[in-house]
Specification:
Strand content of chain B: 5-15%
Oligomer: heterodimer
Shape of chain B: rod-shaped
Order of helices and strands of chain B: HHHHHHEEHHHEEEHHHEHEEHEEHEE
Strand order of the largest sheet of chain B: 2-1-5-4-3
Largest sheet of chain B: 5 strands, antiparallel
CATH architecture of chain A: Alpha-Beta Complex
Number of domains of chain A: 1
Number of strands of chain B: 12
Strand content of chain A: 25-35%
Radius of gyration of chain B: 76 Å
CATH topology of chain A: Sulfite Oxidase, Chain A, domain 2
Shape of chain A: globular
Number of strands of chain A: 10
Radius of gyration of chain A: 15 Å
Chain lengths: ~160, ~600
């Protein structure tokens, strides 16, 4: 009960922040089974979430990169999300269903910058779902690789 | 040779199977690791999808540009589509994607593409009506480029996939072959194991049978069998042992042997056990074994043998054989032998004596003539001389003279008769048939009678009688005939060897136990060497040369005297020659 109340308050704060920054472009839309049914979040709102850093390799780049962003479960907790999985959508219409358990089993990060530089829409931005691939051998698998959604702009909790 | 080779051969096959098994397993594992690794690395590229997405984004930009000219799409939409296409190109020029494009020969095309997009960027940023178709025309080749690249990527990936599958198949075929080898090796091992188990079971069975048989032998053995371990504790005690010692197995097995019976605590047995533990076999015979409640011991033979396990001595086994019967038989044998020895000694003595008598008899017969001449001639001469005088006198002889001569002749004949009897006695003595007929007799009378006869036979010789005691008071215990014969012998000897015109002295004396009679002449003394020999049968002294004699007189005299408890001895001294006849005194020694 307490947790849910906290989440509700956080969601209200987020929604409030989104309302204040009406003029800014929304970066992420969250819909489905969350408190309030739907919310649009801009950069300010996302950067207000606890910042997390993750160093890992990826399958589409060489070498190790340092990603900065927030934990997906922090966001979902704040919004009071209650479904089994999340449908992630990219700007190029790439869509994939991610089990909710992934975010609680692993520290899955929604990154907004790589190696200290903000991700851009003409590259893999503005948001990139990054798994801690190097920390868990089980994640080094193509069935996890397709869940690395870049150019993310919408989450639908189901 | 076959028996020697068999175990090695039997060991070689499973060993080889194990080696083959291990090698094949190792190779299989290596192959599988290789496959696993290859699958992990190779499965992460999907360039066909990447290029398809790229083509789609190019076509969407191209379409949006065309629609923008018609006013059906805004600047924002156009910018988004352009940015997405740029992001696809950026991705293709990054890391693994770039290397793939280079491999399929599209590196130069990518450079051109990047340049083209850079050139188009200002047009998108400052889009004006009428630019749409130009943009559409510029993006159209990009889409076709991606289409061709996708085609090439598909072929390259399928080639890769085919090659990879070929490799996997080859590796799997190897693994299958290895597995077949492993199965074969496993089969051989299983068969070997089964055979070994079967043999082991058979050997166990045989061992068990051998053990049962040994146990049966031990328990049914008539010999006592026991075993002790290194600490001297009894580990085996059969029924025969229990009977011998009188203790059942329950009181023996597990106890120290010295506690079971005192017999085993004796030094001999203890030492033998120690020697057995040192590896030496020992054999003891006829040891006495006392049992409680029995006075007489059994006698047992013991055989100790060390018990070996491999090369280590683990104890001693002892066989106890009841040899009481043999002991008894041996004892009886020994007694029989002793008795036999005694018998033989006795018989030998008898035979010796008989032989001696035979010899004496032979000697007697041989010397009979000499004896006759020696002993018999004197009385015959006396009788003959008396009768000759009577014949010579004829009618001139007065009756007194006739009577005197006749009595003298008769006395001589009587003496001869006695001599014959005595000679026969001697023969009987030699034959061991003569016993002394001892009675009371007056030795003085006998002396006078003998002296009188001697004077008759040799009137020229003077004979003096010196009696210390009154005649008639010297009663001796003897055979009168023997005493007379002895004295006659001594007297005739004294007369014979005395120098002419010297008298012969006869002295009579005695003490409380004996009576003695000394016959002495003044002849030359008997040589020292001859003093005892003259009493031997048929010995004649050095001074007897030229004098008739048989050499039997003194022997007879001494033999007869000793038969009656007396003796004849040569008196020591240089004053003439004195022979002494000693006889026991009548009444002496009687209660």
């Amino acid at each position: 009960m307490t947790r849910q109340t906290g989440a509700t308050v956080a969601a209200l704060i987020l929604v409030g922040a989104a309302a204040v920054a009406e003029q800014q472009d929304p970066l992420l839309q969250v819909t489905g089974r969350i408190d309030g049914g739907s919310v649009s979040l801009d950069r300010t709102a996302l950067e207000a979430l606890p910042v997390t850093t993750l160093e890992t390799t990826t399958v589409v780049t060489d070498g190790t990169h340092r990603f900065t962003g927030f934990l997906m479960r922090d966001l979902l907790d704040r919004l009071g999300a209650g479904g089994d999985h999340v449908s992630a959508l990219a700007l190029n219409d790439y869509a994939v269903d991610i089990p909710m358990a992934d975010f609680y089993d692993y520290d899955v990060v929604v990154a907004y910058s790589m190696d200290g530089k903000a991700l851009h829409r003409a590259d893999k931005g503005p948001l990139w779902i990054v798994y801690p691939r190097d920390d868990h051998a089980v994640l080094q698998d193509i069935r996890y690789d397709y869940r690395w959604v870049w150019q993310l702009y919408q989450l639908d909790v189901r | 040779m076959t028996r020697l080779g068999d175990p090695v051969y039997r060991l070689l096959v499973p060993l080889a199977a194990v080696v083959v098994f291990a090698v094949l397993l190792t190779f299989s594992l290596i192959r599988m690791f290789e496959i696993e690794n290859a699958m992990r690395v190779e499965a992460e590229q999907n360039m066909l999808w990447v290029l398809h997405q790229s083509e789609v984004s190019a076509r969407r930009l191209s379409e949006t540009a065309a629609l923008a000219d018609l006013g059906a799409a805004g600047a924002d939409e156009l910018s988004l589509r352009f940015d997405i296409l740029v992001s696809r190109v950026a991705m293709l020029t990054d890391g693994p994607q770039l290397r793939f494009m280079q491999r399929i020969g599209y590196a130069e095309d990518l450079e051109w593409l990047t340049g083209t997009l850079d050139a188009l960027a200002p047009m998108v940023a400052g889009f004006r009506a009428g630019d749409g178709m130009r943009l559409h025309g510029a993006v159209e080749p990009i889409a076709r480029l991606f289409g061709r690249a996708a085609n090439a990527a598909m072929i390259a990936e399928w080639d890769d996939l085919g090659g990879r599958l070929e490799t996997y198949r080859e590796q799997l075929r190897q693994i299958i072959a290895f597995l077949i080898g492993i199965m074969a090796a496993g089969g051989i091992l299983a068969v070997t194991l089964a055979v070994a188990l079967r043999q082991s079971r058979q050997r166990n069975l045989m061992l068990r049978r051998a053990r049962d048989f040994s146990g049966m032998l031990i328990s049914s053995s008539g010999e006592g069998i026991l075993a002790v371990d290194g600490a001297g504790r009894c580990t085996l005690w059969n029924d025969a042992m229990a009977q011998l010692v009188g203790k059942p197995a329950e009181q023996a097995v597990g106890h120290a042997l010295s506690e079971v019976a005192g017999f085993f605590d004796t030094a001999t047995v203890r030492q033998s056990v120690q020697r057995g533990l040192a590896g030496e076999a020992t054999h003891l015979t006829l040891q006495p074994l006392f049992r409680p409640g029995h006075d007489a011991p059994r006698h047992v033979d013991l055989r100790f043998f060390p018990m070996l396990n491999e090369d280590e001595i683990v104890g001693v086994i002892l066989f106890v054989h009841d040899a009481s019967d043999r002991y008894a038989a041996r004892q009886k044998d020994m007694q029989d032998r002793d008795r036999l020895e005694e018998l033989v000694t006795e018989r030998t003595r008898d035979l010796d004596e008989a032989l001696q008598r035979e010899r004496s008899a032979a000697d007697l017969y041989r010397n009979f003539a000499a004896m006759v001449s020696h002993q018999f001639r004197t009385p015959l001469a006396v009788a003959d001389s008396a009768l000759q005088r009577l014949i010579r006198r004829g009618p001139r002889a007065d009756p007194d003279e006739v009577a005197d001569r006749a009595v003298r002749a008769r006395n001589a004949i009587a003496g001869l008769t006695r001599l014959v009897a005595s000679t026969l006695d001697t023969v009987r003595l030699d034959a061991g048939q003569l016993g002394a007929r001892r009675v009371r007799c007056d030795i003085g009378e006998i002396v006078h009678a003998v002296c009188a006869r001697q004077r008759d036979a040799a009137p020229e010789r003077e004979i003096r009688i010196e009696a210390a005691q009154a005649i008639g008071g010297t009663a001796a215990l003897c055979d009168p005939a023997h005493a007379e014969q002895i004295l006659e012998n001594l007297l005739s000897n004294a007369v014979k060897y005395a120098p002419a015109d010297t008298p012969v002295y006869v002295a009579l004396d005695g003490d409380t136990t004996h009576v003695w009679c000394d016959v002495r002449n003044s002849g030359p003394p008997v040589a020292e060497a001859d003093r005892e020999k003259i009493f031997e049968r048929n010995y004649r002294g050095a001074n007897s040369a030229g004098i008739a004699g048989t050499g039997i007189g003194l022997f007879m005299a001494r033999t007869l005297a000793r038969m009656q408890g007396g003796d004849v001895a040569l008196h020591p001294g240089a004053d003439g020659v004195t022979f002494r006849l000693t006889l026991p005194l009548w009444g002496a020694g009687r209660p």
